[in-house]
Inverse folding.
């Protein structure tokens, strides 16, 4: 007993396929790009904290005193 074989045409499958994307598939990358662009554009306005006031500066100073 033979089973029926189904063939599909290349032109028919492309026309029948649902190629629409959900709204968030375009909105999320655009939103991420916009947020990163805003972060880069606003980075010139920030000022670093003084070394004495920052925790990283204090830890670095302690390490340097311990090693020196």
């Amino acid at each position: 007993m033979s089973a029926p074989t189904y063939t599909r045409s290349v032109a028919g499958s492309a026309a029948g396929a649902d190629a629409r994307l959900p709204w968030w598939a375009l909105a999320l990358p655009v939103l991420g790009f916009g947020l990163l662009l805003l972060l880069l554009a606003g980075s010139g306005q920030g000022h670093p904290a003084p070394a004495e006031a920052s925790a990283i500066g204090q830890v670095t100073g302690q390490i340097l005193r311990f090693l020196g």
User: Anything to note?
Assistant: The chain is about 55% helix and 0% strand. The radius of gyration is 29 Å. The longest helix spans residues 23-41.
